[in-house]
Amino acid sequence: MVKEQANWSPYDNNGGTVVAIAGADYCVIASDTRMSTGYSILTRDYSKICKLADKSVMASSGFQADVRALQKVLAARHLTYQHQHNKQMSCPAMAQLLSNTLYYKRFFPYYAFNVLGGLDNEGKGCVYTYDAVGSYERVGYSSQGSGATLITPFLDNQLKSPSPLLLPAKDAVTPLSETEAIDLVKTCFASATERDIYTGDRLEVVILNANGLRREYMELRKD
Amino acid sequence: MLNFATPVSPCPSLLDSSLLFPVSLRVIDRKIKAHLPTKAHSQVSIMNMSESVQVTNNLTNPEASSQRTLYPYVTGTSVVAIKYKDGILMAADMGGSYGSTLRYKSVERMKSVGKHSVLGASGEISDFQEILRYLDELILHDNMWDDGNSLGPKEVHNYLTRLMYNRRNKFNPLWNSLVLGGVKNGQKYLGSVSMIGVHFEDNHVATGFGNHLARPILRDEWKEDLSFEEGVKLLEKCMRVLLYRDRSAVNKLQIAKLTEEGMTISQPYSLKTFWGYGAFQNPTVGAEGSW
């Protein structure tokens, strides 16, 4: 008896790029709003950014159904945490939870490429970057998704990230001001849109700082 | 001299038994889905005819693998829908294809759901009927609360997304692309769910070929607050293009209108077509040898 082959895949890549940059007292999380499948655009207006807690914002690209399910699982777990501890989860705590949640499905992964941004317990900006099965690292900036290969080298150049091999470890958080960081992110996406077909339409930027959360939008090329 | 070509069906060995079954029986008789295309096997289990929960675990039991959906059999083609001034307009043709055979020509692929929504589906017709059964139960339980609240289109869309995603997780998908539209308290809503759970909402959606042929037209010509006549004209333009270019489309369609007052679905009708275009008469005049 020949084993039957499934002629459908449980995964799809709905494209898109996400970026996050940590500053001294702010964090910028950005993503494009295009959702595609194959060579078609499904919608030009889909948000990949999800606020998980007061000081944690996650942006994910990859397979949209898995991303949405992941957002819901984390939101539910955060609600439970709030009931049990009577406080919001800190960003480092959420970072660990996200990693564990991803690894939980190590053998049927969430096809989600995540970047978690927020403010740590001291109010400094923090960015955590993930792969699909949960391995993560705190960094000063990161980008994931279809345009990541175009954006990361540019950020490396602009943000002059210190070598992770240095001892004592040098802080990777950028000395740029908030407006400069937002401008940098807009430049990143304008460039990525030129060359990556899955990135474009509109840019959504979420800025987290001591005053709270605010959103900015910018139109991108629609071709 | 009439030449009868053998219809290409998805599963040649089923031609003898299942072609004679009307759609409703095929839905009940899940034994057909369990049929392996290559050899007859003794492990076909007679499914319980009553509405019981599927007990066999599809992932750990090797004999159950033949009970997962592998490919669709009777399929519907594109559904196209738009928001307009008073609500939602949705169009779908009435064809149910069995591979390349046009087997059923009066399939209603759009149905109302509760008071506020309409669901259109492309893909496997029997799975669509299954989804309607799930939704029946959902609406029933909602009504039984008798609390004056009723499920709106956003809620139904979310339910369908979870339903499709969960089936995909069990590697046994409902082979449909769904369009869910509705109006509640003046708020218009139009969403789409694919068979693996990918979902979104927008001002205009389409499934299947509609994504490739209708969406570009809608992106160019859709605008806020279309009148009913403008909306129907726009949908008919999309359906006409699909009729010309999608081989599984049939020239018998319905248009569903959903407003705050409720849903009305038109009588089936045909679009006027014109095949006399120069490009159709001599399609390869610009590129000899192409098709």
TrEMBL record, chain A:
It comes from the Eukaryota. Pfam families: Proteasome. SUPFAM superfamilies: N-terminal nucleophile aminohydrolases (Ntn hydrolases). The keyword Ubl conjugation does not apply. One of its GO terms (biological process) is defense response to fungus. Keywords: Cytoplasm, Nucleus, Proteasome. It is found in: Cytoplasm; Nucleus. The keyword Nucleus applies. One of its GO terms (cellular component) is proteasome core complex. Component of the proteasome complex. This is Proteasome subunit beta. It comes from Daucus carota subsp. sativus (Carrot).
